[in-house]
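Risk register update: the risk of archive-format incompatibility is retired. Evidence:
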Amino acid sequence: MNTIIKILLIAYIVLSSISCADDKPNETGTNQYFSITPLYDTESKLIDSYKSDYKIFVYVYFTLNDCQPCAEELILWNDIKNTFGNEAIVYGITNEKKKAILTRYINMLGINYPVLIDSNASIRGKNNIQITPARIITNASKKIIYRSDASDREYRFMSIVDSIELFLKNEQLSAHLNNKN
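Archived output:
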């Protein structure tokens, strides 16, 4: 079996093992594309998350109100830079308006990625986010490649990391094959 077929087979197995009906963008009542506008971060800087060279964007929507799963989910994504370097980035998104409380929470958890403030919950509404924490993973064109609430966080996290790795490898393989032709 040649290398391309092996990679495609592995990608299919991994992706089908993490796909559940509630994870598919079209079956959750949302768009296939993530609707996000520039948001302010905790330092009042306007951030347009897609103005970068990253290939994968991970958005973790969370709340601060008694949400232990939110805290656990946020911590899981701290090492994304170590895993994917400059190919993937994580953004936390919350509708918490009190920046002092939010900053203290982020510092307490040791979050090392940008947290954006959805002050009027428009991102939450446009993307039909009903349960937090929620994760939405997109490619550079905002196409949703994975979406779920964060139940079974650690298991799903490892499956998602594996899927992102395969996505990036397939993209590199595709670019390599296109260069040969």
